[in-house]
């Protein structure tokens, strides 16, 4: 029987902000209740009413690590990435996750293959690796092997499904580079903690060495964060990218 499966090989990771309740004002109203009591929400709605005082309070919270006001926010992202990236995401138990299920639906033949801009050579000791570009031959080998093994694994998966094997059993042969999707919801404090570990930035108080693929997702999440909460994001960088 001829196999007409159309395999898709990609080197990108996509992140979409699908819902948010996150602004600098959300942090201010939560913080001011400690000194003003009730009815602080109206006073904090417009950060620009007293921009200097607003930024001053946010700076105080960030500098002295009074983190709970930053938890009064929420951002929900839709992430489309290979499964091995999600396993790293779920090391962060400060978020809520709902992932596409291979038990309940047939997974699509979409696979991750590193792009030509992805460093391949690893030098150094655990926790302090440096990565360097590969040779043309190494890039060709990675692509060839990823395509070959992914296609073979998916063929096995399909043969089992066609034979009436349950999806939750047939999926055991699928590789970690197959794409999945999930919703992840974090508050701003949790997101800053995530970004401190999953991005590599000059000026970080605690240097991090993330795997490039999860950093690709984190960079997109940070872009949304910076748009939603520009003052908080600015101060986060000024204070060494340490979550309050």
Determine the fraction of residues in helical runs and give it as a percent range: 40-55%
- Label the CATH architecture of the domain at 10-111 and 179-238: 2-Layer Sandwich
Summarize model confidence as the mean pLDDT: 92
Order of helices and strands: EEHHHEHEEEEHHEHHH
Q: Give the end-to-end Cα distance, rounded to a whole number of Å.
A: 59 Å
Which structural class best describes the helix and strand composition? alpha+beta
Total DSSP helices: 9
The largest β sheet comes out as: 4 strands, antiparallel
Name the poorly predicted regions.
none
Q: What Rg, in angstroms, do the CA atoms define?
A: 22 Å
What is the CATH C-level name of the domain at 10-111 and 179-238? Alpha Beta
Report the oligomer.
single chain
The CATH topology of the domain at 10-111 and 179-238 turns out to be: Gyrase A, domain 2
- Strand percentage lies at 15-25%
Within the largest sheet, what's the order of strands?
A: 2-3-8-4
The overall strand count is 8
- The best one-word shape is elongated
